[in-house]
Amino acid sequence: MPDASANYRGILAMIGASACFAANDACTKIAAQWLPSSEIVAIRGFFALWFAFAIIVVRRELVHIRRGADRTVMLRALAESLAGFLIIIALGLMPLANVIAILLVQPFLMTIAAVVMFKEAVGWRRWTAVSVGFLGMLLVVKPATNAFEVASLIAVTAAFMAMFRDLLTRRIGPEVPTMVITLASACVGVVIGALGAAAEPWKTPDFLALAVVALAAAFIMLAFIFIIIAFRGTEMSAVAPFRYTIVVFAVAFGIVLFAEIPDLISFAGIGLIVGAGLYLLHRETMQRRPKAAALP
After folding, report:
1. What pTM does this model have?
2. Count of beta carbons in the 10 Å neighbourhood of residue 296
């Protein structure tokens, strides 16, 4: 069983990952003011590709690169690239904290998918948490009100794509290194961005725009590294709840960089999403303990 120091390290790494994911989104939102969405996907994917390749070389995992051509890995890469493309569009149209909050409904979507696709049994407590989470999303999206933004639907669609990505991730064997999966996603991202650029006018980026997109790629690679550290040799039940610190960083970046202050209704919705998500994690932990105790 992991000791307290390992869990402490994992918690710090998860907080670092959340900060890096939020910083990536903030940089992407800045770049969206200057460049088309498809162009950002292509350029960020190009930088992420080389960052991932360098890490693979350092970790001596070149022998596993061929596994990146696996069909499931490539389908996952396609889902991630499409989700990233939609997120960039949403970031250019609505507040950063609102986009992050909508994307956090993904655990609730995974619970529904577990019932529909895998026939898993879900009790009334988890269904209540799912309902509360969706209520929180509605408070953020604000349908049927003057505050409703069509961009919210784009963010919701991105959350569905992220759900498909994670469902596919569950089917990838442990023999495929994380960075190889990341490299495949970066390669597909470059292709998706290039195809999208055929429909959008290409705008030659200046040095500042390139630097911001490169910084976004660096932040997302750092986030992946922190995620690996967070779950290696630690208790998931101790570490996973700290993923929701991303909301704190998103709100902070939104206020400091974009002068975006969520209204009280949005804050209430974010609170419901985070609270329901934490409860889902708690229930998952409670159900896992008897199974773990039964193992020899």
Report:
1. 0.80
2. 2
